[in-house]
Amino acid sequence: MEQNLENIRHSLAHLLAAAVLKKWPDTKLGIGPVIENGFYYDFQFTQPISDADLKDLEKQMRKFIGGKLAFTGKEMNAAELNKLYSDQPFKLDLIEEYAKDGRAMTSYRTGEIFEDLCRGGHIENTTEIDPDAFKLTKLAGAYWRGDEKNAQLTRIYGVAFENKEKLDAYITMLAEAEKRDHKKLGKEMGLFVFSSLVGPGFPLFLPKGEVIFRKLEEFMREEKEKLGYSFVRIPHVAKAELYSKSGHLGKYDAMMPLMTDNDGNKFAMKAMNCPHHFEIYNAQPHSYKDLPYRIAETTTVYRNEKSGEVSGLVRVKALTQDDTHHVVRHDQIESEIAVITDLMDRVYGTFGFTDYKIQISIRDPHHPEKYFGDNALWEKSEKILIDAVRKWGRRFVVEEGEAAFYGPKIDIMVKDSIGRTWQLTTVQLDFNQPENFDMSYTGEDGSKHRPAILHVAILGSVERFMGILIEHYAGHFPLWLSPVQARVIAVGEKFQDYGEKILAELKDVGLRAELAGSNETLGKRIRQAQVEKIPYVLVVGEEEATNGTVATKLRGADLGKLSVKDLVEQMQAEIKEKK
Amino acid sequence: MEQNLENIRHSLAHLLAAAVLKKWPDTKLGIGPVIENGFYYDFQFTQPISDADLKDLEKQMRKFIGGKLAFTGKEMNAAELNKLYSDQPFKLDLIEEYAKDGRAMTSYRTGEIFEDLCRGGHIENTTEIDPDAFKLTKLAGAYWRGDEKNAQLTRIYGVAFENKEKLDAYITMLAEAEKRDHKKLGKEMGLFVFSSLVGPGFPLFLPKGEVIFRKLEEFMREEKEKLGYSFVRIPHVAKAELYSKSGHLGKYDAMMPLMTDNDGNKFAMKAMNCPHHFEIYNAQPHSYKDLPYRIAETTTVYRNEKSGEVSGLVRVKALTQDDTHHVVRHDQIESEIAVITDLMDRVYGTFGFTDYKIQISIRDPHHPEKYFGDNALWEKSEKILIDAVRKWGRRFVVEEGEAAFYGPKIDIMVKDSIGRTWQLTTVQLDFNQPENFDMSYTGEDGSKHRPAILHVAILGSVERFMGILIEHYAGHFPLWLSPVQARVIAVGEKFQDYGEKILAELKDVGLRAELAGSNETLGKRIRQAQVEKIPYVLVVGEEEATNGTVATKLRGADLGKLSVKDLVEQMQAEIKEKK
Question: Mind giving me the DSSP string for B543-577?
C-alpha cells in the first residue's frame, strides 16, 4: 500500500476516536490500526450504539477535517503517559507493556481536539484528507487484545481512499462481490453443501460441484503430464515420526490432527505432502540423468482450524492441493523455476488471470533461530529466487520474516474480474529437507550428491480456487467447467421424445446435457435454465423436429437453428479451447 | 466345501495328534480344526520340534491310515471327561467352559490309538483317506485361544484332498501363487512401497503403480457414468456424531480412528461413506422421478487394524472403495439389483473373472439384538435378495449371522487365473439407515415416502483389487492397465535420435512409452524390458530408420516391422477393447 494512503487511514482512525469521545466522553479507547482498504477503532462504550450512530460520527469527522487540524507527535516516558491517560485503562495496559519491553513511546495530538498513544504514521494536516472519500461501514464485537478472557469491545470499521472516485469504485466492487458470494451461488447452483454432522470446514461436493472440482484436477494433471511430471498416490495419514523427521512436528503441532492407533502409535492426518513424497523418492535409486524428477499429486491436507475461522470454500479444514515436489540438481534450479513460471502463466491465462502481484518471502533476519539450515545456504537461496523472478520479467516485493522454516518462497497473487487479489501459487526453494531425509542422486562422477527441492502448488487449494472461480465468473463458468453444458427444452409434451433423442446424441459424444421436464411453461423453463447459468439452452418444437435442428441460445445470445452436428462441433471446439 | 472332504481333514487332524503323542507322549493337546484346504493342530511340546520332524509324523499317520481304524463318538458328562483328560490341561479348560454353557460334550476315539474331546464330524474309517493325498506343510506359533496372555503353542499345518491329483494341483498352485506374490512383483515392477515412517498398512503408490490404480478408478467411473450415476466428493473425516446417528459408533469404535480437534469436538476418520452420502442426499429435495439416485464416489475409508494383521495391498489400513449408494423406491429394488449384477458381469468379464461364488448373508436368527429394524422388514429384505440372485440365474449359498447390522447382503467371490477365490463385490440392502437419517422423496401422490438403500462396491477395495490383479495376471497386465505400454530400444547410439522421434510420436497420441538408454547391450535391454513385463518392445536400427518403421515384439511374439501408424492403430484398438 502507498505510504500516504496508509497515513490517511491511520489519521482517520484518530478522528473517529475523537468524534466518539466528543459524543460520549466516558468511552474507553482500545486500539485503532490501518487494515486493507481502511481502518478500525475498538471502543468500550457506556451505552450500546447502533449502525444509525455511524452517520453522526462521519459528520463529526468531516467537521474535524474541515478544521485543518495538524498531527504532531512527541516522545514521552511512562510516568508522563500514565498521567496523561489516567482515565484510559486500555492505554495504561499498553503503556505498561511497552515500558516493560523498553520501547520508545510517543503520543500524537490532532489539533487541540484529541491525543492518542501511538507509534506514528500520520499525515501532517487533515487538509490532506478528501472528506468525501471515507465511510464508516459497520460495527462488530472484539475482545481486548483478541483474547476472549478480556473485556468485550465494540469495533467500528471504516474504509478510506485518496478520492471519492476510488471509494465509489470500492463500494461498487463490494456490492458486486456480495452478489457473487460463492457460498450463496454454491447453494443456488447446487455445487456444495455443509452438514452440521460432518462438521464446519468440511464441504460436501454435490454432483454439479464435483464436476467442476474434477475438471480442475484433470486440467492441472494434463498440463503437468505434458511436462513429464510423475504422479504418485500417498495415504492421508502417517506416523507422527515422519513429521518429527521433517521438523513439522514441534512447529505445527496445533495445526496437525493427531491420534493414537490400536498399536499405540501416534498418528497424524497429513498436514503436508512433502515428507511422504520424499519417502517415495528415497524408495528407488536415482541418477543425475533422472533429474528433475517431478513428484506430483492432487491430494488433501488437514488443518486443525478453529470452526470460527473457516469460511465457505476459501478456508476449509481439509484442503486439496495440486502439489508437486521438484527434485532438482543445484544447477537446475533456475531453469526449473522457469518451467514452473511458464506453467503458471499458461494456467492463469486459461482463467483470464493476467494481472499478478509477486512477493518473495525471505527470513526474518532478527530471528535466525526460527529457521533450519545455515546462513550461506539461505543467502544463496534467496538470491536464486530473486534472480529467477527478475528473469521472468515481473515486478515483485520482498517481505522479511515470511519464509517457510526450511527455505524462502515466491508467492503469486492474481487479480480477479472485479479487482480483488487472491494468493494462489507458492514456490518454495528448499535445501534443508533433502538433508533431513538424506536424499541423494548418483552424479556423472559416480558419487552421491544432494539434490534441492522446489515445493509448488499452482492452484493452491482446489477448494479455495473453486470458490475464487465461482466469484470470478459470477457462476457463469466457461463451457469446459460448466456442470451442465446444455439443457434441452421441448416446447410441448409431444416434442419431449424429440428432446430425448437430442439429449441422447449430446450425451453420446460426452457432453453434459439434461432434458427439462414438461410440467412447467416454456418461459419458466427457459428462465430456470438462465438462473442455473447453463450455457447452452436448446429449444425444440415442430419445426426443429421436422428439420432435425435445435433452436440454440448461448448465454442468452440467439445462435439460430443449428443441426445437431454443427452444435456438437461448436461446443467441442469451445471446450477444447477452454474459453 | 463338500462334507466328506471336511470330515477327512478333521480326521487327519486327530491322526496328527495321535502321531505326535506316539512320538512325544508328554505333549499337551490344544485344538485341531479344519481350515481352507486342510487342517491344523496346536500342541505344547516338552522340547522344540522342527520341519524335519514333519516327515516322520506323516509316515506315522500313513501307518495309522493303513490300520483301518474306525472313528466312534460317545456323549459324556463333565466328570467323566475331566477324568479322561486329567493330564491334558487345555482340554480341561474347554470342558469347564462347555459345562458352564450347558453344551452336550462328546469324546471321539480313533481305533484304540487315540481319543479326543470333539464335537464330531469324522469319516467312519481311515480307509476313506487316500494316504498320498495329504501333507504336513509348516510349523507356526499360536497362543492358546488366540490370546497373547495365554501359553504359546506350536501349530502344525496340513493340507489334504480327496486324491493325490488334487493335492498335486494344489501344491502346484501354491508354488505359482508364490511366484506371483504381489508384494514381490510390486517391488520388482516398481508399483508400490511401504515406509516405516509412514507406517505399516499404508502403501505409497509409485508412478507406475499410480497408473494402474487410476486406470481402475477411471474404468469404474466410465462404466458407472454410462448408467447415469451421480458422482460426489466428501471429506475423509466427520464429527463422531455422524457415526452415532448411523449407529456405527458403539458397534465399530475399535475400528474407527478417533481424535479431538481444536474446538474440543470428537472426530473420526471415516470408516464408511454411507452417512456422508446420506447427508448429501438430504441436502436437496427429491421426487419419485429422480429415483433411483445413485451416489457414487471412489474414496478412502480407514480401519484401525493392528499392524500384525496388515498384508501388502490385500489388507491395508486405508482402503479406497468404488462405493455407490443407490437410493431407490421400494418398487425399484429388484430392477436396481439387476442393473448392479449386469454391471458386475461386465466389470468382472473385463478382467476375465467368469467363475463366481455367491453368498447371501442373513441375520443370526439366535441373536436378533445384534441388528437394527423389525423382523418383518428383515424377512422381506432377505427374500428380495434371494429372489434377485435367482433371477440372475446363479447358484448361491445362504449364511446365517453374516449380515450387516442394518441389513442382509450378497457377497460375490470370483476365481482367479490360478483357481483361488477372492471376495469382491458386496451388495447390501438397507431399510434401516433411511429411517436413521429421515431420508425421503415426494411420491406421485405428493406426500413423503421413505426410500431404501443399496450399498454397493464392485471392486471392493481398489488397493486389494490391484493386489489380486497383479497375481491374477502374474504382472503381465493387459495393455490398457500397463504402466509402460511400449519401450523403444535403439540398436546403437546413432539410432537414439530416431528412437526419440518414435517415442515422441507415441507420446503425442497419449501412449505410455519410454526410450531405453544406450549404455547397455541390445540383448540386455531387451531382456530388461521383458523382466519389467512391458507389452510392446520396439527395436529400431538402420533399416527401420530408413523405412520409418519399428521392429515390433508383443509379449515376446514377433509382429515384424510395422509403420508407426499401424503400430499406433493396433495399440489403440487393443486399449479400447481392454484386452
Answer: HHHHHTEEEEEETTEEEEEEEHHHHHHHHHHHHHT
Predicted confidence band at A390 (pLDDT cuts at 50, 70, 90)? very high
Pick from A195, A267, A318: which is nearest to B236 by CB?
A318
Return the higher-pLDDT residue of A319 and B308: A319
The CA distance from B28 to B44, in Å, is 5
For A145, other C-beta atoms within 10 Å of its C-beta total 16
CA B96 to chain centre: 37
- Contact status of A210 with chain B (Cβ, < 8 Å): yes
- Strand B536-540 relative to strand B486-490, pairing: parallel
CA B206 to the chain's CA centroid: 22
Say how far apart CA B234 and CA B33 lie, in whole Å: 44
In this complex, which of A232, A262, A276 lies closest to B306 when CB atoms are compared?
A: A262
Which residues on chain A are in Cβ contact (under 8 Å) with B227? none
Between CA B269 and CA B277, with CA B271 as vertex, the angle to 5 degrees is 95
How many Å apart are CA B224 and CA A514, to the nearest integer?
17
Q: Tell me the chain B residues in contact with residue A276 when contact means C-beta distances shorter than 8 Å.
A: 195, 198, 204
Interface of A with B in 284-323 (CB under 8 A): 284, 289, 300, 302, 304-307, 317-318
Least confident of A23-37, A253-267, A309-323, B21-35: A253-267
Closest residue of B to A270, CA-based? B198
Q: pTM above 0.80? A: yes
Query: Which residue bears the cell 516522545?
Result: A75
User: Is the ipTM above a cut-off of 0.90?
Assistant: no
Under 8 Å between Cβ of B439 and B327 = yes
Q: What is the distance between the alpha carbons of residues B227 and A507, in angstroms, rounded to a whole number?
A: 11
Closest CA to B117 of B128, B126, B104: B104
A418, A173 contact by CB (below 8 A):
yes
- Chain A's closest residue to B318, CA to CA, is A235
Say which range, A269-273, A302-306, B217-221, B456-460, has the weakest mean pLDDT.
Answer: A302-306
Closest CA to A40 of A26, A52, A57: A57
> Which residue in B154, B133, B166 sits closest to B8, CA to CA?
B133
pLDDT in tens, B334-382: 999 999 999 999 999 999 999 989 999 999 888 877 887 778 888 888 9
A324 closest CA partner among A382, A277, A389, A392 = A277
CB-nearest to B254 from A202, A209, A262 is A262
Q: What percentage of chain A has pLDDT greater than the value 70?
A: 99
Element (H, E) at B61: helix B51-66
Q: What is the DSSP string of A93-144?
A: HHHHHHHHTT--EEEEEETTTEEEE------SBGGGS-TTSEEEEEEEEEEG
CA proximity to A235, closest of B221, B272, B208, B200? B200
Written as one string, the DSSP assignment of B139-152 is: EEEEEGGG-TTS-E
DSSP annotation of A233 reads B
Q: Closest Cα partner for B167 from B135, B137, B128, B129?
A: B135
The strand pairing partners of A143, in sequence order, are: A152
Q: How far is A232 from chain B (nearest CA, A)?
A: 5
Q: Rounded to whole angstroms, how far apart are CA atoms B77 and A158?
A: 91
A217 touches chain B (CB under 8 A): no
**Complete domains list, chain B, with CATH:** 2-170 (3.30.980.10), 184-235+271-472 (3.30.930.10), 486-577 (3.40.50.800)
Count of C-beta atoms within a 10 Å radius of residue A254 = 9
**How far apart are alpha carbons A518 and A524 in whole angstroms?**
11
Is the preceding omega at residue B483 within 30 degrees of 0, hence cis? no
Averaged confidence pLDDT in chain B: 93
